Fold these 4 entries.
Entry 1:
Amino acid sequence: MNRMKRFFGLLWVIVLLASCTSHKNLVYFQNDELDGNVPAEQKYTYNDGADNSSPEYKLQPHDMLYIQISSSMDEDMSRLFSGSTANNSYYSQTSETGIYLNSYEINDEGILTLPVVGDMNVMGLTVDQVKEKIRIKAEEYSKGVVVVCRMVTFKIKVTGEVNRPGIYTFYQPSVTIFDALATAGDLTYYGNRAKVRVVRKNANEDLVYTLDVRKFSVLQDPKYYLRPGDIVYVEPNKSTKGLVHISQPMSLITSSLSIITSTIAIIMAFKK
């Protein structure tokens, strides 16, 4: 009986050890030596001419923009500006589907076509620059113009070892790797924080690069900022994920042994 208990206890120790993973492999924003420490304050100063500020996305063909133009002085003109996308859509403009259907696509030549305002070249401009360009053009027809302009195709796919894999739409002008990971519910316990891969399709090439989000220096990496259409893939941690295959059968074995031990103890008690 005592041998059974000792064996049972030993199995539990093995399971607990198998489920452990190094602390430093789970912590974000460590110093680059990866000793598991997170300094109270850490600063990186860029050299003269270097800049890693948040870059605003430059618009490309087939990007979709949700645009509303209204005039505070002329309701009829507001309706004309809205054109066929006025509030007669079956879908609410507050829903993602409604916003998409009430949006305008930039064509292959970088031209955006709007009711009344007409055609304008927006290739390579930021969303804010397009918004201002529309306002100036619209004020040729009416005063008191207000323009709302949002990009609706800034979609990032997040998959792998995250808690909520899926496709996420962002409406801000720039998106970071941590924006994507946080929206997907962060990495799971088994996610390899040293190998967060980003897959990016360009016109003439496909690019796959890897970020180590444990390191503070990830903030200085130009690839820290994502682009529309990027795929973020979190690789499983081989050592931790592999131990799952050990710990799960071991858990079943120890549970079974626990039942057997309890049954033997009850039988022995009755025999006394």
Note: Residues 15-21, 85-89, 243-248 have pLDDT under 50 and may be disordered.
Entry 2:
Amino acid sequence: MLTVAVDGYSSSGKGAVCTKLAQKLGVIHFDTGAIYRVIGLYVYNNGIDPHDENAVVNALGEIKVELKHNNGEQVTIMNGQDVSRDIRQNIISDICSITSPYPKCREFVYSIQRKCAEEYDLIMEGRDITSHVLPDAEFKFFLDASVEVRAERRFKELTEKGQVVTLEQVKADLIERDRRDSHRELSPLILTEGTYHIDNSYMTIDEEVELMYKTIMGETE
């Protein structure tokens, strides 16, 4: 089975790149960060304090997550409801950056991730896929870009959705998320040995997809 593991910082373009690459390869794309976002959405919808680890962990038993695919696009289902759009709210991003380091939350997500990897040829993206979830993946990539470029991408995305934010706020938020992702005790975001590092600050999505595709197909020089 083909397994491609992709890690990267927030707003490094993992989702768009992996979706197009999966379509080009004819495999399934799993955005496993969506599972963490489901937890964040449930916490938000039910008025749970994300800083209360015990309360968050106790809620896990009430959450059922299904990941389906429609024409290469992932559909995220929480307790029978399509929440693919709801989990992309900025407030949910903030909440899941607090709850995702909790060990029980990560165990909850790992069980779903590994089950998927056993069943499908896939591209799996996240922040600890190459280091912890699929360390033996056939191909491993780490996507990166300067914080300035990532902030501009995120700012454009949020404003197009009608959210009122400043570029400075977005940049500060990304810096804090980077710090949390890189310094959490359990499976931090790191560049692992044997992982292909790509700085996409000045690359188009198509250029990045083509580079990854050629690497997988053994066509790079």
Note: The two ends are 25 Å apart (CA to CA).
Entry 3:
Amino acid sequence: MEHTTPTQTQKPGSSRQKKAAVINDMTGFGRCALTVAIPIISRLKIQCCPVPTAILSNHMAYPSYYFDDCTDHMESYVAEWKKLGLTFDGIETGFLGSARQIEIVSGFIRDFSREGTTVLVDPIMGDNGRTYATYTKEMCEEMKKLAAQAGIVTPNVTESCILTDTPYHDGFWKEEELLSMARRLGEMGPSKVVITGVPGESHIGNYCYERTGNRESGRKEETAFIQVKREGETRCGTGDIFAAIILADAVNGVEFKKSVSKAAEFIRDCIVESVQMEVPLTDGVCFEEILDRLQP
């Protein structure tokens, strides 16, 4: 294939098509991270530009896996984009494996954002009341700083607790508890917060918080607790699907609560399809079967 050199009429990134950079690991098998984000964001008519943080043969829920840390390559990789003068309409961050990676990503947001860039931080830190084994106290503190650079954050209940220093408890969460955490997350910097995966008796909830205005003009808050019927068991990669839809919709100007409902319903439908096809839990959700249902 012949490669052309950019000219004055063919500048990198000069297309009217919107672009989103997604910083996450590349996992070959198991439907998560970049292998989920790229098709989802592309389906929503946005060019997805990946920044790999690690290469895995398959995700870590399998008995064994190959892992190659990309930390030492990230700065050189990103430096080439800086030479091209690229900017992005959206930036999404996913799983980060070290404090240094978080620092690199923080610099990426500063360097590649422009006025109007949507920055979404998915602070993948833990679940079920515990941080992941790879997460240190230093990384948790650095993630708080990274979340402060975001316009949108999508933590689950555990991650919301970690970021706001809120004690975690099992069982159901009251809306006033969720509102308190969402407000504290918003005070860190993001104007839009969705606390994902809130457990209910027969439903899974997503608590939305949106703040507009400022201290001078007066701040306004909007909240919504969006629930969908629980289907099947928890599967890998659903959070990555959720974040990809929220980012792409935000870049496309879709209203926040509408986007959260859309993402939650799509994931539910993916799980239903996966159960019907008897897809193993570790293999994630077979979103490919119903990707055509997802509309910009």
Note: Confidence is low (pLDDT under 50) at residues 1-10.
Entry 4:
Amino acid sequence: MYPYEIIFDMGLYEIMLCAGVISAMLIFRHFSDKRHLSAKLHNFVLLNAVVTVTGGYFSAVVFQAFYNYLGGEKFEINQGTGATFLGGLIGGAAVFIGVYFGIGYFVFRKRDREHIKMFPQIADIAAVCIPFAHGFGRIGCLMAGCCYGKVFDEPEWFTVRFLRLDINDEVIGYIYALPVQLYEAVFLFLLGAVLWYMLNREKKGLLAYYMIAYGVWRFFAEFLRADDRGSTFVSFLSPSQLVSVLMIVGGTVIEVLHFIHNKKADEK
């Protein structure tokens, strides 16, 4: 679409990624104030988020390199490797949890383990932040021309023209594809809005809702995708579909445990 550099050597892809990170930080600030998180916990989470974004992006690239390897390519990490959101989500979640509970143990040991008591609320706020940040990222994918949908020989009313570039970023042709990135961005913004509303209504367990909703969406959206991301040991599932199934199962388990916990609390 428009992968060219615009400002500070950044194209719209990088600009949209930055917009996504900023939107997540603003949303977190909004709800941390509403939930009266302490300044220390607020700042700790924001610093953790910086480490998480860095670790998550590295994980996204490593996962993509692994997907490429499964697809018969050489395992290598360079500027052309690409990145996959679900790989970044898994790696980023691991980094966040490791820092939050590992370093948080020492940071909050004199504050009655505040970070542990407030973790469910942090998770609920994160469930709102993630889809908005991801939505901007998907718009960036649209601009970069990656993660596109099924390709058609001729332009149709439901397709978007994507540039075909050579290794020097020179235009060598066009393809006409479904703008799956745009579909997903719309879905993510709607999901974020619904979760925002639920959080305002003091609903809990939103991270499980996010995992299930996005897992279902991504599983079926893969049928519209045309950019091959490799294969898995389950022959009929793409890597993203396999991770989506795990997200749905994980979110369901979390929700069931949350339901059991609430039921026992009501019985006391």
Note: The two ends are 59 Å apart (CA to CA).
